[in-house]
Design a protein that fits this description.
By secondary structure, this protein is of the alpha+beta class. It is built from eleven helices and nine strands. It has two domains: about 140 residues, Beta Polymerase, domain 2; about 110 residues, no CATH class. The protein has a five-stranded mixed beta sheet. Strands 6-7 form a two-stranded antiparallel ribbon. β8 and β9 form a beta hairpin. α5 crosses α9. The chain starts with 15 loop residues before the first helix and ends with a helix.
Length: about 280
C-alpha cells in the first residue's frame, strides 16, 4: 500500500470528504468493490509526490464491480436515500447538497461485450479496459481511508479509450496523459534506471521520451489480456502516427505545451514503441 499524509483539502475538490464518506458507506453496505477513477484518482496519485492538482472538478468517478442490473438498481436506491438525485444518464447521481455529480460505472459480470445495457435509451456505456486495469489496483491512503485507484500506466489506457469514444468532449484526457508523462521519470527514477536503462540513448537524453516508452511497456500488460482493448489502443495510436499533420493527439499536446508537432509525434511514438516492441 502507498500511504501518505495527503488530505482531502489538498485534492482541491469541494466536499470530496463528505461525498467519499457516503460512497464508502453505501459500497460497504452492499459489499461491492469500488475504485476511484478519473481526474480525482490521478490527482491522488500525483499528490503522493507533492504535485498539486492542476485542475479542479465537480465530478467524481467510481468504477464498481457488480454482476447484474438488478444489483445496480438496489445500489441506486441507496444513493437516493442518501439525498442524491438520478440524472438523465442512469449511472450519474447528483447531490444538490454538495453541488457535485458522481458517476458510478459498473463493470464485471454485468458487462456484455465491454458495454453495459441499462435501458433502450442508454445502451452504450463503454467500460473497455476496466477489468484488465483494475484487476491489480494501487491502494492509496488518504487521511483515515484507503482507496483503490488505477496505476498510472492504466490511467493512460483508460483515458485513451475515453478520449477515443468522445474526442470532441474529452480534450482534458490528453492533457492528463501529458501530465503523467511529465512526472513519471522522477516518480520512478530508481526503477527506470535499474530495469529500463536499455532504452537510454547514447546522446539526446530526453526524460519525457524515456518516460513515455516505459509507460508504454507497462501498459502492454493490460493489452495482452484483451484483444479488443489491444486493437482499440494500437489502432488509435497508428492513426495518430500516420500523418504528422492530422494527428489529433499530437496537435493537442503541441498546443497545450507549446511544442512543435514533430516533438509531440516523437513522444507519442515513444509510447507506441513501448507497447509494441
Amino acid at each position: 500500500m502507498n500511504s501518505s499524509n495527503q488530505t482531502y483539502k489538498e485534492l482541491s475538490i469541494p466536499y470530496f470528504n463528505e461525498v467519499f464518506d457516503i460512497i464508502d458507506e453505501i459500497m460497504n453496505d452492499h459489499n461491492i468493490p469500488y475504485y476511484l477513477i478519473g481526474v480525482s484518482a490521478m490527482s491522488l496519485e500525483l499528490l503522493k509526490k507533492g504535485i498539486k492538482p492542476c485542475r479542479g472538478t465537480k465530478d467524481i468517478d467510481f468504477a464498481i464491480m457488480i454482476s447484474s442490473i438488478n444489483e445496480f438498481e438496489k445500489l441506486s436506491e441507496s444513493f437516493i436515500k442518501k439525498g442524491f438525485n438520478k440524472a438523465k444518464a442512469p449511472w450519474t447521481f447528483f447531490s444538490d447538497t454538495y453541488n457535485i455529480a458522481v458517476d458510478i460505472l459498473p463493470f464485471g459480470k454485468i458487462e456484455e461485450h465491454d458495454t453495459i445495457q441499462f435501458n433502450k435509451r442508454y445502451t452504450d456505456l463503454h467500460v473497455l479496459g476496466f477489468k484488465e486495469i483494475l484487476e491489480n489496483p494501487e491502494k492509496v491512503q488518504i487521511e483515515e481511508k484507503i482507496v483503490n485507484i488505477p496505476p498510472l500506466p492504466g490511467m493512460i489506457i483508460l483515458k485513451l479509450v475515453a478520449w477515443s469514444d468522445r474526442p470532441e468532449e474529452r480534450d482534458n484526457d490528453l492533457k492528463d496523459i501529458i501530465l503523467i508523462i511529465e512526472n513519471y521519470f522522477n516518480f520512478n527514477f530508481d526503477e527506470i534506471v535499474e530495469f529500463h536503462n536499455d532504452i537510454f540513448p547514447e546522446n539526446d537524453f530526453d526524460q519525457l521520451k524515456i518516460a513515455a516508452e516505459v509507460l508504454g511497456r507497462k501498459s502492454k500488460k493490460y493489452l495482452i489480456k484483451s484483444e479488443l482493448l489491444s486493437n482499440r489502443i494500437v489502432t488509435l495510436l497508428k492513426k495518430n502516427l500516420t500523418d504528422i499533420n492530422e494527428s489529433k493527439i499530437a496537435k493537442e499536446w503541441a498546443i497545450t505545451k507549446n511544442w512543435n508537432m514533430e516533438y509531440a509525434i516523437n513522444l507519442l511514438n515513444a509510447f507506441y514503441k513501448g507497447i509494441t516492441e
